[in-house]
Design goal:
The two termini are 55 Å apart. The chain contains 15 helices and 10 strands. Helix 1 packs antiparallel against helix 10 (281-295) and helix 12 (343-361) runs antiparallel to helix 13. By secondary structure, it is α/β, with parallel strands linked by helices. A hairpin with a 5-residue loop joins strand 1 and strand 2.
Length: 548
Amino acid sequence: MDKPVCLIDRHSDGKLCVQQSALQILEQIQQPVVVVAVVGLYRTGKSYLMNRLAGKQTGFALGSTVESKTKGIWMWCVPHPTKAETTLVLLDTEGLGDVNKGDPKHDTHIFCLAVLLSSTLVYNSRGTIDNKAVMDLQYVTELTECIKVKSSDEDADDSSEFVKFFPIFIWAVRDFTLELKIDDKDVTEDEYLEFALKLKRGISRTVIEYNFPRECIQKYFPSRKCFTFLSPTTPDKMSCLESLDPADLSSEFLKVTDNFCKFVFHDSRVKKLKDGHTVTGRVLGHLVKTYVDTIHDNINKLFDGYLCQNEQASKRRCEDLLSSLSAPMMEKFVQGFYAKPGGYDLFCNDLEDIGKKYNSQTNKEVKAEEVLEEFLKQKSVDSKSILQADKKLNEREKKINEEKENAILLKQEIKAKEEKQRQLEEKMKTERQSNEERMRQIKEKMEEAIRLQIEDAERAMESKLREKTDLLEKGFKEKAEMMSKEIEEFKRRSAEAETNRAKELALMLENSNKRHEETMAMVMEQHREQMMAIQQRNPLSLDACCIL
């Protein structure tokens, strides 16, 4: 992409809508994606940082007035500068806190979408991280209302579930003017952030209100980073920031910007779902659509619903076509055209012509054969009445014609069943492919879960080893020996859990494949029995006539 495009727009009525052109771009990206989203109060310079991450001077719109420039969420997909075979997706969001929006929940929806879609979330603010700045980040306290995590215990602490798919959190403080000192001691930017998020002691209402947003940030974003940016240039040049040469910008500002970009490129992870599944551009597009639809309580209908609608529409089209093609014949029937010697043959010829025209115009319709079968059954009543009225036919000819008519009906019934057989085989093929893909995904997820479990165990082991070393250094030999026993027991349980997960995966795949094959075999056997029953009803009549 040579420039950003709108991913999620906002209608005049305030509702969010996904842009199909942006989804088509994501559909073509089969690579894993690293998604970096920036949020923050409007007019705080979010777009400049995103342009720098894209390696461009311009791209995302930079406003120079008090009006919010970006509307909705804009997207820019570029090759990742340091990760091979990976796409970097940059999301620039509408500025928060714009009083002209009207809907007080709009900002919360934008913030929630940025959190859900990103693997790294950049929160952009101006000035310092004081209590007002933290309280401005009120949207984090509403995440639990916007996002529901399934839990068997409604009162359980679900922060661990959120952490599995929430992004790295970067607080970018623009136009920072303070010294990085706490109690006259120099501190890092990260220590400055942690100090700002430090909780107060007490249970008063004021303390609870003070602590709540800080607790939410700590709980939902355990991976946190802070960057403090000086003002890039003098106030009179800020309106043309994107056109300024690097020489016209503060060297310290450029240094922090470079460090910010390096951190994002190196530490931002490939986007993963809660179950550990890697997200590609195509999957990201599906997530965007799903999340926006969920916000509007307008979840898309399942595939079976669409299939049912398609079949119903096909049936209506076929019925309308037959009604149109048979209208002249029915007009003749009403006027008594066939009530004469030879009328039966004329009726059969007209019926045959209708069948030929119908078949030539409905070769793509899924309900074509079924509708024609029902039509012929209905017309058989008319043909019988015409046959009885046809005075030129003797009894033997009548019997032959009855067999001929039965043969036509039987042949069409078999043809309809064969068409159903073809559709069934196609459906079974699709089901088989779907099952194989489902098994592949389950295997990937289980293997990824095992890998993550091993990584968690390794981190826990490292923590226990550090704790043991610390105990030894402090002279707690007995506690250190107890810790050694705990470590050995932990190793044993981890190995046992890994073995059990591998067995569980193998058994799950085996049982799923077995159930799938049994179901498919049962369906095929039922269809074979139906076909045999039709053929045994009148095996001789199939050769009597072949009209359609």
